[in-house]
């Protein structure tokens, strides 16, 4: 047997055995690689359309912007691969809160593949007018309308969830009331918008789909973190999204989509207008103002011991910390999530605290990790826990500084998110941990740095 053919068959067998049940982006990319290997000579657009055909994924909305699948290739693939592709592309929500058609990415995000692939196909076909409807508009409008009719049992958009296992994800379960535009659908839509815009303006004709997806979703930052990373990677999706999206166009298309809904009475129409306006502003706040916040369930937090006390919002103070231990900055989601679990275990089991002490923790992977979060009183700054948030940077910054991107995430994105969300006073004061107690935290070098930040105060009342 020709060794090339033997290698291809081996690749298919390995994929069929190892990756037909796990839902990680690397598994989907491996499926695409195996399909490309036995379907040589196909352009990226051919593979994208062929995947959609194999998954049986076609609606009137899709046909309006992308045409039908009559000219799509019938991709050659093992039945196990075809079955896997169909499962991970087709999106659905069960009554028990299970969300299908979602994969976990290396950066810790949960991505619905359908809107990502539709945006990519729109860009490859140069039908850029379909980018907004296919990636974001349709799902947001559908979710807002559904919420108007089911306000007690749904949220307007953005429901997050958690996996049964971070290392071997198979089942993704929503952790709050459902929406028809879940966080995974929105993240998939944002990625589809970014990638579709990229391929519509750049020459990607000679590039394979698997290569594009690997470069976007599989980048692992080195010690320099995101500061030295390429532009087009998933860790920078919010930055790239803000650069290329027109929020005014997105909103006008949503308003236009709502005008064709004629089966609403006057009170429902008024309520829908309110939900849409409020929801759109919140959408911009969550996905364009705030940093990407990894929830407790996403990083695998243990339960709070006892009952938490609640903050009175907005709080007037923000305290900056470093963890000291772990002393090494984390640059990947897996590493940062592991550090979070380690710190929580130490705080609960060794210190005897109810939970991890910090309100939020900044990783050098581009994510902000939820500790006690927006509402719970922390254990970060003795005497001021009920008056402020404590944000810690993973690492020891006695003689070095965190990378610029993670400092900017807290200095600008987190504070804007907290103030605009009514959680941190617009006239807040910023301090280093050492100003409240006898400690070297947040490290000599870092403390000198934060003295140049907006709202830093030398005097702590």
UniProtKB/TrEMBL annotation:
<dbReference type="InterPro" id="IPR036505">
    <property type="entry name" value="Amidase/PGRP_sf"/>
</dbReference>
<comment type="similarity">
    <text>Belongs to the N-acetylmuramoyl-L-alanine amidase 2 family.</text>
</comment>
<keyword id="KW-0732">Signal</keyword>
<dbReference type="GO" id="GO:0008745">
    <property type="term" value="F:N-acetylmuramoyl-L-alanine amidase activity"/>
</dbReference>
<feature type="domain" description="Peptidoglycan recognition protein family">
    <location>
        <begin position="291"/>
        <end position="437"/>
    </location>
</feature>
<dbReference type="GO" id="GO:0009253">
    <property type="term" value="P:peptidoglycan catabolic process"/>
</dbReference>
<dbReference type="GO" id="GO:0002376">
    <property type="term" value="P:immune system process"/>
</dbReference>
<keyword id="KW-0391">Immunity</keyword>
<protein>
    <submittedName>
        <fullName>N-acetylmuramoyl-L-alanine amidase-like</fullName>
    </submittedName>
</protein>
<feature type="signal peptide">
    <location>
        <begin position="1"/>
        <end position="19"/>
    </location>
</feature>
<dbReference type="Pfam" id="PF01510">
    <property type="entry name" value="Amidase_2"/>
</dbReference>
<feature type="domain" description="N-acetylmuramoyl-L-alanine amidase">
    <location>
        <begin position="303"/>
        <end position="443"/>
    </location>
</feature>
<dbReference type="GO" id="GO:0008270">
    <property type="term" value="F:zinc ion binding"/>
</dbReference>
<dbReference type="InterPro" id="IPR015510">
    <property type="entry name" value="PGRP"/>
</dbReference>
<dbReference type="InterPro" id="IPR006619">
    <property type="entry name" value="PGRP_domain_met/bac"/>
</dbReference>
<dbReference type="InterPro" id="IPR002502">
    <property type="entry name" value="Amidase_domain"/>
</dbReference>
């Amino acid at each position: 047997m020709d060794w090339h053919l033997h290698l291809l068959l081996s690749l298919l067998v390995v994929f069929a055995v190892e990756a037909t049940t796990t839902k990680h982006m690397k598994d989907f990319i491996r499926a695409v690689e195996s399909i490309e290997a036995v379907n040589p000579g196909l352009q990226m657009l051919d593979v994208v359309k062929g995947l959609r055909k194999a998954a049986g994924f076609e609606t009137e909305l899709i046909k309006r912007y992308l045409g039908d699948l009559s000219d799509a290739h019938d991709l050659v693939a093992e039945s196990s691969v075809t079955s896997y592709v169909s499962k991970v592309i087709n999106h659905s929500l069960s009554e028990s809160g299970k969300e299908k058609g979602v994969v976990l990415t290396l950066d810790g995000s949960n991505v619905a593949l359908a809107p990502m692939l539709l945006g990519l196909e729109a860009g490859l076909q140069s039908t850029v007018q379909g980018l907004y409807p296919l990636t974001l508009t349709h799902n947001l409008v559908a979710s807002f309308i559904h919420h108007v009719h089911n306000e007690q049992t749904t949220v307007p958009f953005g429901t997050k969830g958690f996996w049964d296992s971070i290392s071997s994800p198979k089942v993704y379960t929503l952790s709050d009331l459902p929406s028809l535009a879940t966080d995974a659908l929105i993240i998939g839509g944002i990625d589809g918008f970014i990638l579709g815009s990229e391929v519509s303006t750049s020459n990607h004709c000679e590039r394979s789909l698997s290569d594009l997806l690997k470069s976007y979703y599989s980048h692992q930052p080195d010690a320099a973190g995101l500061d030295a990373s390429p532009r087009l990677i998933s860790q920078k999706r919010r930055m790239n999204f803000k650069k290329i999206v027109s929020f005014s166009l997105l909103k006008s298309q949503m308003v236009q989509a709502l005008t064709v809904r004629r089966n609403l009475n006057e009170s429902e129409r008024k309520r829908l207008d309110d939900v849409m306006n409020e929801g759109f502003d919140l959408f911009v706040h969550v996905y364009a103002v705030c940093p990407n916040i990894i929830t407790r369930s996403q990083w695998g937090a243990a339960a709070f011991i006892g009952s938490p006390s609640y903050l009175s919002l907005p709080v007037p103070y923000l305290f900056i910390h470093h963890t000291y231990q772990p002393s090494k900055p984390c640059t990947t989601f897996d590493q940062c999530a592991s550090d979070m679990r380690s710190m929580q275990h130490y705080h609960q089991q060794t210190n005897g605290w109810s939970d991890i002490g910090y309100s939020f923790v900044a990783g050098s992977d581009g994510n902000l990790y939820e500790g006690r979060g927006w509402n719970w009183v922390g254990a970060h700054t003795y005497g001021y826990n009920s008056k402020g948030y404590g944000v810690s940077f993973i690492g020891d910054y006695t003689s070095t500084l965190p990378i610029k991107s993670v400092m900017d995430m807290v200095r600008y994105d987190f504070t804007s998110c907290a103030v605009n969300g009514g959680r941190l006073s617009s006239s807040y004061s910023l301090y280093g941990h050492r100003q409240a107690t006898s400690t070297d935290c947040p490290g000599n070098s870092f403390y000198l740095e934060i003295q140049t930040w907006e709202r830093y105060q030398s005097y702590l009342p």
